[in-house]
């Protein structure tokens, strides 16, 4: 069958010819207009692009493979979000795409994009990726190379290109796997924001197969030279032309491609002052968005005066920061210094304990382009904006992130509200006893002091791989100190009346929690993920009347949940993923009237679900992936829950849910039943691997 046989169905060689002659001879049955319509439809189909055996040398198996691969590429590769207003992008993108085709099937090609921060390197790279990714066997865009661990980046490339999902333990193993697994694959790989030769060695070695393409973005031209990229294949990013800059500023300030009457001269002066720097234009434009009345002319002139005094990019960005409210400033600085890469849930709980309009503040920060929240609900921001925020925090000395040894030499700790200490020894916790300290993250720190000295103002305590003095207990593990010193732990709890969030992820020696945990009456989030020796929870857990989030994922030794868990009247999210020896849930779980999401995936020993689970009227998601036995005991009555989404069930259960259960002998078993909605699996509590405490 050839396309022409369909396009010309009455041609001499078309297999359709006799059929159409037959239909035309039966005009008493079919009208001529109907038959002509069929012919026209065949002609239209033939005008659409498709596949034919000629493309594969008449090998049918190769044609099937090509069709399947093309479909997979179309379905799997979701385009990256480039820019809300892609001004000046098309010309640069076309130039880069043309260079991509300079390569051949015998060689791999390398390209570089070079320019200062905020000039648009990542934006151009994303546009090129969207345009070219379907021309390769596989593609990977690796963001933020300079601020991410090398093993994680290697793992991302392997996952994107060959769906390799095992965690890498070393950079050397990652380099070996890249060379071994990617042999023969024509790949498009983009490394964004490279600033070190070590990164090139780990990620851009000689593993690229012929026909592949590597694109590197960097602020340092020397990095691109080190990557053996010829000068012909390096594109230097420059600022926007004045007309393009005016258009970009106008889109953000006026939501139109040109200034509104009366603001033409002021707009041009701002564009000239920004020297075509896209990020500065976007942020200043977003800042000026609601300042378009006659009385706001002074705001525009004030900004121009600031430009006259200095032309530093950081100080330009700081203009937008100064226009924030007090709450918005504090939230912005927290994100810049402490919460980049953090899911929004816990920080929002943290801020709500101190501020009134948290979500409004986050929305305003997002609208002013000072922060971003990605598709995974994670905080992010442009690295230049983050640098500006950290510079402000250092000037104000309100937030610190430093090695533990240097903390004792800090000039001023009285104003610190957020502190992250890592890798070292800390002689005294008394220096942390400032009335303003709300957030404390200790990572791989040996503390030579009593834990009782934690400040009462603390709202978020996060502990990763820390140790305490042997004089307190024969073991120096933090979780074992809590276990062995219940009386002292009670005093610790009593000294933290405002604690909202406790994160003990990865404390793998913790066997149980003391009863005094129930004294944390304001606790809203308790994360015990990967506490692999934890076997039970105390009954006093029921006293946590404000608890919203309870994460017990990967607690592989958890035997049971106490009946008192049903008293957690505010609990909305309960994660029991990979609780591998958990056999049953208590009937009291049906009392969790506010529960929205329950994850039981990979809890393979779970035998049944209590009938009371059908009382969870607000349940939206029940994840039972790999619960081979428990799914058989799902109560029929659970299907009346209006918002329920069931995930991870075997196919037979999916089919079963189309029919209403037979509760009496007289009921019709084939009566149609409403099928619950389906969506993506729960991601509220994402397990993160942490070193053993």
TrEMBL record:
The keyword Chloroplast does not apply. Keywords: Leucine-rich repeat, Plant defense, Repeat. Residues 91-254 form the NB-ARC domain. One of its GO terms (biological process) is response to other organism. InterPro entries: Apaf_helical (IPR042197), Disease_R_plants (IPR044974), LRR_dom_sf (IPR032675), LRR_R13L4/SHOC2-like (IPR055414), NB-ARC (IPR002182), P-loop_NTPase (IPR027417), Toll_tir_struct_dom_sf (IPR035897), WH_DNA-bd_sf (IPR036390). GO terms for molecular function: ADP binding. Residues 492-605 form the Disease resistance R13L4/SHOC-2-like LRR domain. Residues 327-392 form the Disease resistance protein Roq1-like winged-helix domain. SUPFAM superfamilies: P-loop containing nucleoside triphosphate hydrolases (SSF52540), RNI-like (SSF52047), Winged helix' DNA-binding domain (SSF46785). Gene3D superfamilies: Helical domain of apoptotic protease-activating factors (1.10.8.430), P-loop containing nucleotide triphosphate hydrolases (3.40.50.300), Ribonuclease Inhibitor (3.80.10.10), Toll/interleukin-1 receptor homology (TIR) domain (3.40.50.10140). It holds the Pfam family LRR_14. PANTHER family: DISEASE RESISTANCE PROTEIN (TIR-NBS-LRR CLASS)-RELATED, LEUCINE-RICH REPEAT-CONTAINING PROTEIN. This is NB-ARC domain-containing protein. It comes from Cryptomeria japonica.
């Amino acid at each position: 069958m050839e396309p022409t046989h369909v396009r010309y169905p009455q041609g001499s060689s078309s297999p359709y010819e006799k059929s159409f002659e037959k239909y035309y001879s039966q005009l008493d049955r079919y009208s001529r207009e109907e038959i002509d319509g069929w012919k026209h439809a065949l002609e239209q189909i033939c005008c659409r692009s498709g596949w034919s055996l000629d493309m594969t040398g008449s090998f049918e198996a190769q044609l099937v493979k090509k069709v399947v691969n093309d479909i997979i590429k179309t379905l799997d590769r979701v385009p990256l979000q480039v820019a809300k207003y892609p001004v000046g992008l098309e010309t640069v993108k076309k130039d880069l795409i043309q260079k991509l085709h300079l390569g051949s099937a015998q060689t791999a090609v390398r390209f570089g994009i070079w320019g200062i921060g905020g000039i648009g390197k990542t934006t151009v790279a994303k546009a090129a990726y969207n345009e070219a990714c379907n021309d390769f066997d596989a593609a990977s865009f690796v963001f933020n190379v300079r601020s991410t661990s090398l093993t994680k980046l290697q793992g991302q490339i392997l996952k994107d290109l060959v769906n390799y999902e095992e965690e890498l333990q070393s950079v050397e193993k990652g380099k070996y796997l890249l060379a071994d697994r990617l042999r023969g694959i024509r790949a498009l790989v983009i490394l964004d924001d490279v600033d070190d030769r070590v990164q090139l060695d780990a990620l851009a070695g000689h593993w690229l197969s012929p026909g592949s393409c590597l694109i590197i973005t960097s602020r340092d031209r020397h990095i691109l030279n080190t990557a053996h990229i010829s000068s012909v294949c390096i594109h230097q990013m420059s600022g926007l032309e004045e007309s393009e800059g005016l258009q970009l500023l106008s889109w953000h300030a006026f939501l139109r491609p040109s200034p509104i009457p009366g603001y033409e001269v002021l707009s041009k002066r701002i564009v000239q002052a920004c020297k075509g720097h896209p990020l500065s234009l976007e942020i200043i434009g977003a800042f000026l968005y609601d300042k378009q009345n006659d009385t706001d002319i002074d705001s525009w002139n004030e900004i121009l005066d600031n430009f006259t005094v200095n032309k530093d990019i950081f100080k330009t960005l700081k203009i937008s920061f100064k226009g924030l409210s007090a709450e918005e400033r504090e939230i912005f600085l927290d994100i810049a210094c402490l919460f980049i890469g953090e899911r929004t849930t816990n920080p929002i709980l943290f801020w709500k304990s101190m501020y009134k309009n948290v979500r409004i503040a986050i929305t305003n920060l997002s609208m002013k382009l000072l922060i971003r929240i990605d598709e995974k609900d994670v905080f992010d921001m442009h690295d230049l904006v983050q640098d500006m925020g950290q510079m402000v925090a250092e000037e104000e000395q309100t937030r610190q992130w430093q090695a533990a040894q240097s903390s004792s030499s800090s000039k001023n700790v009285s104003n610190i509200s957020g502190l992250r200490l890592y890798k070292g020894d800390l002689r005294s916790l008394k220096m942390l006893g400032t009335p303003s300290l709300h957030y404390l993250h200790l990572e791989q720190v040996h503390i030579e002091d009593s834990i009782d000295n934690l400040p009462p103002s603390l709202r978020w305590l996060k502990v990763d791989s820390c140790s305490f003095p042997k004089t307190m207990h024969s073991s120096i593990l933090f979780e074992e100190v809590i276990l062995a010193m219940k009386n002292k732990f009670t005093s610790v709890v009593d000294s933290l009346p405002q604690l909202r969030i406790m994160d003990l992820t990865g404390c793998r020696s913790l066997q149980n929690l003391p009863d005094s945990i129930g004294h944390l009456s304001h606790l809203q989030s308790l994360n015990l993920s990967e506490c692999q020796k934890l076997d039970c929870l105390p009954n006093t857990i029921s006293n946590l009347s404000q608890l919203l989030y309870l994460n017990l994922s990967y607690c592989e030794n958890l035997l049971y949940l106490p009946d008192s868990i049903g008293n957690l009247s505010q609990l909305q999210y309960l994660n029991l993923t990979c609780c591998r020896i958990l056999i049953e849930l208590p009937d009291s779980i049906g009392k969790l009237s506010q529960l929205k999401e329950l994850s039981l995936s990979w809890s393979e020993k779970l035998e049944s679900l209590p009938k009371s689970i059908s009382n969870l009227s607000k349940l939206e998601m029940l994840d039972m992936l790999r619960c081979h036995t428990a799914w058989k005991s799902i109560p029929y009555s659970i299907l009346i829950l209006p918002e329920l989404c069931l995930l991870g069930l075997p196919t037979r259960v999916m089919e079963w849910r189309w029919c209403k259960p037979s509760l009496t002998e007289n009921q019709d078993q084939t009566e149609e039943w409403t099928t619950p909605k389906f969506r993506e699996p729960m991601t509220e509590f994402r397990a993160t691997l942490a070193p053993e405490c």
